[in-house]
Structure prediction request, 668 residues.
Amino acid sequence: MNSVEVVRGGTVESRHAVHVAVQDARGRTLASVGDPSVLTFHRSAAKPMQALPLVEEGVAARFGLTEAELALCCASHEGEAEHVAGARSILARAGADESLLRCGAHAPYSSSAARALTEAGERPGRIHNNCSGKHAGMIALALGMGWDPVDYHLADHPVQRRMADEVVRWSGLRAEAIPTAVDGCGVVCFATPLDVMAGAFARYTGAGDAGEPAGEVVRAMTTHPFMVGGTGRTCTDVMDVAGDRVFVKLGAEGVYGGGLRGRGIGFAIKVEDGGRRAVEVALVRVLASLDVIDSEEVGRLARHGNPAVRNTLGDVVGEIRAAFELPVLSSVGD
Amino acid sequence: MNSVEVVRGGTVESRHAVHVAVQDARGRTLASVGDPSVLTFHRSAAKPMQALPLVEEGVAARFGLTEAELALCCASHEGEAEHVAGARSILARAGADESLLRCGAHAPYSSSAARALTEAGERPGRIHNNCSGKHAGMIALALGMGWDPVDYHLADHPVQRRMADEVVRWSGLRAEAIPTAVDGCGVVCFATPLDVMAGAFARYTGAGDAGEPAGEVVRAMTTHPFMVGGTGRTCTDVMDVAGDRVFVKLGAEGVYGGGLRGRGIGFAIKVEDGGRRAVEVALVRVLASLDVIDSEEVGRLARHGNPAVRNTLGDVVGEIRAAFELPVLSSVGD
Prediction:
C-alpha cells in the first residue's frame, strides 16, 4: 500500500495514491514509496531554486532585500498583511511597481485577510496572488540583471530561461528532457521524474550546507517560515516545529519537495491525483520516517499529519491518515 | 487504465483512479471499469431514495409539496434564491420552521448568491446548506408521520431508521452489512459495494418505470433539473441536456449514481480519491458509452466532460479528460 486514507466513521471512504522518493546528492535512492520515477511537475516546490539567482547574481544584496523578503520569494503565501507588504517592498527596492506583475489576481487565501480587504473596500489584486513574492523576485532579477522586465513570465524571456537553467543545473537532466507547461500563476513550470526531483533537493541542500549561495535561501526559509506560507500553512508549521533541520515547499497538484540540512538528503512527494489534503499528511509521515521530527513533534503537527474530517456542524466524523511506511535504507542519516 | 487525467501543457500531471459499475435490476453487472465492488459511501447520491417515503407515505400530497419542491428534496443545491425559497416553502407547508434544521450553516455554493447575501447584510444560515431541501423534507416526513421532528438527523430517530430501510430495500443487503457514518450535513450516510449501488439504482428506476412512487421522484428530478443543483452544476446540466432519459445525482467524495429510464439500468461511479473534478468527467463518459447522450450532447456538456484547466490569468493551460472506455456488454439497451 502507498496510500493516504480518508476515513468516515471507521470506514475508509477515499484513498489517495502517494509516491515518495528520497535521494542523496549522488542520485542514489535511499527510500521510496509507490513509483519513485513518476513524472512530476515541481510547480511551486521549485521556488527555492527559482529564488537562487537573486542571491547568486548579487541582486538581493544590491537591492537590499531582507532575509524575510528572500523567504517570500520562495512562498506560496496566504496573502496576509506581511506577505503583501513584503511583495510591495521587493518591488519598491527594485524600483518597480505592481503594474509589472504578470500573475493573476485572486483573493487572499487567508479568509481573514480576504475579509479585511473587502471591509476596506479594496479588490483583490495581483499583489495578493499567492505567488506574488516569487513574481516580485523575478521582476527584481530582471532589473538587477539589466533585462527589460516586461513580460518576464514568458518562456523566451531571460528570466524564465534562467529558471530553466536552474532546473537543469540541480536535476542534472538536459533541458530537452524536461517537459514544461504554464503554471497557475502564469510562469513556466517544469516536470522531472520524482526521484530526480529528490536528488535536485539533495544537491541544493548540500550546496547550501557547503556554504554556497543556496544556503542563504534555505536559511531564509527556515528562519522566516511565516513568510513561506502563513497562518495555518503546513510549510510554515513544519519549519516552525523543525527549526533549521529541514526546509520544505508545497507545490500545486499534490507535490512536496524538501531537503534535510546537514544530511545531504532530499525528498520529493507526489500524490497521484493531485490532492493537497493527502500530500500534507504524507509529508509529516515522511519527515517522521526520516527522523527529522520526533513523535512529540508529530503530535504538534497533527492538524497537518492526521487531520480530523468535520461536518458542517463542526463535529468530528472521520480522519485523514497515512497508510504507508517509508522503508528507510540504512545509509539514511549516515 | 481506469483513470481521469489532468493534463498541463500536453503532459499528464495528475491521475484519478475511477471505478464504475453498471447493473440491471437483477444485479447482473453489464459493464464495469476498475474495481466494481469497491465499498462506497453513497453520500448525497442516496437522496432520491431518501425522498421516496415522502411520496410513498402520502406526506408530499398531504402537505401539497410541488414537483419542484420534491426535486429540491433530492438536491445538493447552490443556495440560489429558488433553492432557499423552496426549502422555506417545504418547511412552511409542513408547519415547521428553520429552527428545526440540523444541517450546518455554510455560505451558498453559488458565488453570486453568497455575494447577494453579504450585500443584504445577512449571514449564511442552515437554510443555505446545500442539503437544506433534503433536511426540510426529512422534517416534513417526521411531521407527516406523527413523529417528533426534533433531532431527526440522529441515527436512532424514526426518520433515519426509515432512511436505512430504504437503503436495505433497494440494495438488497441486510442492514448489518451496510456500514454507516455521519454525512457532511449531519444525517446518517450509508456504504455498499459500488455494484450493489448500481443495482439499487436499476431497481429504483425500474420501479418508477412500472408506475410505482419512485417514478414521481425521478420525474420531479428530470422535470426540474435546476432544483436538483443549480447554475453550472453537472447534475442540472446533464438532465437539462438528456431530458427524461436519465436521472443522475452527485455524492460527495467523488460519487455519482443514476438510472436510465425505460431501460432498467442503473450505474454508480466512485473516484478512488474522492475528487469531484474527476467524477463529473467520468459521468459524461459513462453516459456517452451507454448511449444515453450522443456526440452533439457530449459537446454541449464539454465544460463537465472535458473541462479546461485555466491559470489565474484565465488562460487555458491544460484539460481534464476521461482516459477510460466502458466496455459495454451486448445486453445493455435490450
In short: Residues 68 and 224 of chain B are 6 Å apart (CA to CA). Chain B touches chain A through 44 residues (CB under 8 Å).
